[in-house]
Amino acid sequence: MRFRFSAFVILFLAVACSDVAKRDLKPGNYLSDGLVKRSLMLQLVQFTDKLPEGFTHEQRFDSLALPVFQQRASIHELSFLYPTDSVIYFQITRPAPSLFKERIAIGGWFTLQPNGKITDVEQLYVTPKLRPEELVVRTATLFRELVQTGNVKGFLSDRNYVNYPDSVNQYNSQLNKWEYVPKGKWN
Question: Considering the entire predicted model, what is its pTM?
Answer without folding.
Answer: 0.83
